[in-house]
Design brief:
Layout: H1 2-9, H2 23-40, H3 47-59, H4 66-92
Helix pairs in contact: 2-3, 3-4
């Protein structure tokens, strides 16, 4: 989680001092992170999963309880990865059954512009 968050949005997780965060600190840090994510890629359909993973890591005190936080927050990372793959397939016009070698649009795909 930590490396992906940093590489995806160009920021690290939190300060180096390992002190438990208060709920207001977690809210502020999450809001700041969400703002950066929205600015970085406003059209990313998966950004909310990345934000939830970040909130989860902060709430689980990832700097202090690294293993426990990774276990608790893995589901968000897993969902984010699946979402990224689905988003890629949708943008490439691929269906689940077809492989990457086929580049035709899926004719039953919903029109997300009006959803």
């Amino acid at each position: 989680g930590r490396g992906r968050l940093r590489s995806t949005y160009g920021i690290g997780l939190v300060p180096s001092e390992a002190e438990p965060r208060t709920s207001s600190e977690i809210r502020e840090a999450t809001a700041d992170y969400a703002k950066r994510v929205h600015q970085s890629d406003p059209d990313d359909a998966c950004k909310y999963l990345a934000i939830e993973e970040y909130r989860c890591l902060l709430t689980a005190q990832a700097e202090i309880e690294t293993e426990e936080a990774a276990t608790k927050c893995f589901k968000w990372n897993d969902e984010w990865r699946r979402c990224q793959w689905d988003q890629y397939k949708f943008n490439e016009g691929l269906t689940y059954i077809e492989g990457p070698q086929i580049r035709k649009a899926y004719r039953f795909a919903p029109n997300y512009k009006y959803a």
